[in-house]
Design goal:
Two copies of one chain form a homodimer.
Chain A lengths: L10 E6 L3 H12 L4 E4 L7 H4 L3 E2 L10 H25 L5 E2 L3 E5 L2 H16 L5 E3 L1 H7 L10 E4 L3 E3 L1 H15 L2 E3 L3 E7 L2 E7 L8 E10 L20 E11 L11 E6 L2 E7 L4 E5 L13 H14 L7 E12 L6 E4 L5 E5 L5 H18 L25
Parallel strand pairs in A: 1-2, 1-12, 2-9, 5-14, 12-19
Antiparallel strand pairs in A: 3-8, 4-8, 5-7, 6-7, 10-11, 11-12, 13-16, 13-17, 14-15, 15-16, 18-19
Helix pairs in contact in A: 1-6, 1-8, 3-6, 3-8
């Protein structure tokens, strides 16, 4: 797919970042008839590769984040048709597994907190259901005997992130999106308008300019590091480190779990995401450590301790990968989707823990803005920070 | 070093297995003027690569294993001169670090057990010394505040196993030992005498016979799987799986520990071996799992839990490798060094947890037998099993 001619290629849209967000945006823009390029040194192998792939608006809801919940639910509703269309057009599985989620209380304190959470969920009309300890263990026989009950969330599902990435790469290639496996060195600006992207020269990457009608920034945790863009237009994004583990059960045997299990253990959140392949993802820490992606013994210890406390059979699984990814965090935990304030530069970033969940909605909103000038909803618009973006640091609202 | 001629090469001795034992034996035989070959598909990358490298006869002593202790102490005494000679002749560091060992009690039960162990050590004349909790923490400030004291074993040291392997590979190459990076497919036998080794053909390995005056088996856990050898001459070796972790501290900072720390935590043994490079090895499980070398979540969890219980700062280290190796176990936990009962076939295997410690003594005994017909000590001689070796299974004495 790498164009061989060493001259300027011009595109209606150049997407910076080939993760699940960038690939989804590129796909939707191309479907609207635009010529599209994606620039990423290693498409699909950033934060999207590390993600657990939960589609969990209800079980992830947090007090004070009702507006994020609205976006998450909107995107969760888009997921089945997004996945079906992706499978049809890519010829590949999407990775979607509508398995439901169980949020488990491991001790009386966690139980009290979960009961309050369920009351909040029901107040919001989310219809989750309390299961006793026995009912929980009937649903998931490998749960630890000592668990104190659980919230059953039938509508929270998951997607195998790596299967999804393969399907998205296939569909963008098939549809004629051009993938540049290169880093972007700079965004070219003239008279307060973004004009194009300069590729960083390197192995297989000529020094090249890509003039673009619109540039979409979907560079995740790296989205505030765009060279050439005046500081006042840069989004306020910080990396939030997440460490997680990939385990493997015996593929000959039944999966350890039939649905995602989330839990609180001594106040810490843990999730255990089974795959039909026998893989089990255990995550995740949430750490403010800059761009550090090292794997720390204490994080691995805590993840394994907490997971085995909820599902003791985790001990028997093979540990195949220890990983760290960087979530793109924003001051109010909501994404930045829409015009950046600089003409020609559009943001599709800041999705925090919810990038995979929010991909269908994000792609739809970005295409709506670029192709139809439809304003994205206020809750996602980067303009909510325009008044404050000269300040060095923003506190969450 | 790979000979290019595709004909039979003849050697005075062919050593099967290029781990620390095999390389040490090859070096000593070559020093005695023999022509020597080592056959190993990946020299130095078997169990020796995984080992922690403790030289710990005193802190590892177990009730009922006094004869093993004698061998271990004899070999520990050889280590300083072995290392010095290796450094001189290889031009490489040996990895020896005479750092001492602290055996820590993490709770009152462990303390009682360690006090009994120290009494046993002193009965054997091993001269270990009890430190109070405060004295222990003065010696090693990062020990957990709750530890209940420790045995200080000044004479138990360590060697960086991977540095050692590099030095041994250098010295055997320099001295003219021929390394075949190939598997052995069979041992050729005629009239109850071993005649040579057939190499298994493969990439870079021609099908080739290596006629040999003597064949030395130093194939570790795989030593009982020699094709062509009548079953009654095969050693009774079983694999004992050990899982361990390699962590990394900040090389800019002082090492986490100044000496090896061993401990009992809830009756389980754990060791934490610091290196001057910032590496920290944490081990090890001891499991009868056949030839399985998978990394299990429960083993990693327990190692990290126990290590952080003794040295909480372990949590901050990077987890860089999770490994499993197969120790060659014998029915009585002592090695098999000397004539196998089949003419021309000599054993240097079955070293269990003590392969690196016992390498200098093993090499000396094997060279003494082959070059001078010196009988190895009765405690190591394979002949101790000759009477029983037709039995399917041997119980430890």
């Amino acid at each position: 797919m790498q164009p061989s001619r060493n001259t300027a290629d011009t595109f209606d849209a150049v997407v910076l970042g080939g993760g699940v967000i960038g690939l989804s945006v590129a796909w939707r823009l191309r479907q609207r008839g635009l010529s599209v390029a994606v620039v990423d040194p290693d498409p699909g192998h950033g934060t999207s590769w590390v993600a657990a792939g939960m589609l969990a608006p209800v079980s992830e809801v947090a007090y004070g984040e009702e507006r994020l919940l609205g976006l998450n639910i909107d995107s969760a509703r888009l997921w089945p048709s997004f996945a079906a269309e992706l499978e049809e057009l890519s010829g590949e599985p999407s990775g979607l597994w509508e398995c439901g989620t169980l949020v488990v209380a491991s001790d009386p304190g966690d139980r009290a907190e979960l009961e309050a959470l369920m009351a909040f969920q029901n107040e919001l009309g989310l219809g989750s259901q309390w299961l006793s300890s026995r009912e929980s263990r009937n649903a998931e026989p490998l749960l630890a005997p000592g668990i104190r009950g659980a919230i059953l969330v039938d509508q929270d599902h998951q997607v195998d992130n790596r299967v999804l990435i393969a399907a998205l790469l296939a569909v963008v290639r098939r549809s004629g999106v051009v993938l540049y496996g290169c880093a972007a060195s700079e965004i070219e600006i003239s008279e307060e308008r973004a004009l194009g992207v300069l590729l960083a020269p390197g192995p297989g990457c000529p020094k090249k300019a890509l003039p673009a009608g619109t540039i979409v920034v979907s560079a995740g945790a790296w989205s505030s590091q765009l060279k050439g863009v005046p500081e006042r237009f840069l989004p306020h994004i910080r990396p939030v480190k997440g460490q997680l583990l990939r385990l493997l059960g015996n593929p000959e045997q039944a999966p350890v779990l039939g649905r995602t299990v989330r839990a609180q253990v001594n106040g810490r959140h843990i999730y255990i995401v089974p795959r039909l392949t026998g893989e089990v993802v255990v995550g995740a820490t949430s750490e403010e450590m800059g761009f550090d992606t090292s794997i720390r013994a204490g994080a691995v210890r805590t993840l394994l301790d907490d997971a085995s406390r909820v599902v003791p059979a985790v001990d028997d699984l093979k540990l195949v990968e220890s990983l760290a990814g960087l979530r793109p965090g924003t001051p109010d935990n909501r994404p930045l989707i829409g015009p950046s304030g600089l003409d020609g530069l559009v943001l599709a970033t800041g999705h925090g823990r919810n990038g995979i969940l929010l991909a269908p909605l994000t792609a739809q909103l970005v295409a709506g803005w670029i192709c139809d000038s439809s304003e994205p909803p206020k809750d996602t618009s980067p303009s909510r920070f325009f008044a404050t973006r000269h300040e060095a640091r923003l506190e969450p609202r």
